[in-house]
Amino acid sequence: MQQPDPETRFLAAIGRAARALLGADHPLVGAMGAAAVQEQLAALDEGRRVQILAAAHREMREDLAAIWGFLPGASAAGVVH
User: Is 81 inside a domain boundary?
Assistant: First the structure.
């Protein structure tokens, strides 16, 4: 199974962070596409925006399976580095 592209993963991570920090009914949670997400992020106060982006970046940074999928030769079975 192929991993979603990094932009899709990042936008989804922003949505999950927004749900956790702002609640499920906030417009950022359901924003579709980069432009809508950017618009909703811009409408937030700086402190909340920083919290959401930090949480999204942390999620991506800690997703080792996704990172591994982008390494050259990582899909080869039994490869030990």
Answer: no
In a domain, 75, yes or no: no
Q: What is the pLDDT of residue 53?
A: 97
In a domain, 79, yes or no: no
Measured CA to CA, the distance from residue 80 to residue 52 in angstroms comes to 35
Question: Domain for residue 74, yes or no?
Answer: no
Can you read off the two tokens belonging to residue 49?
Answer: 């925006």
Buried b (16+ CB within 10 A) or exposed e, 20-33: eebeeebebbebee
> Model-level pTM?
0.79
For 23: left if phi > 0, alpha if psi spans -120 to 50, otherwise beta; the answer is left
Domain interval for residue 53: 6-69
Dihedral sign for Cα atoms in the order 24, 27, 32, 35: negative
The total number of structural domains in the chain stands at 1
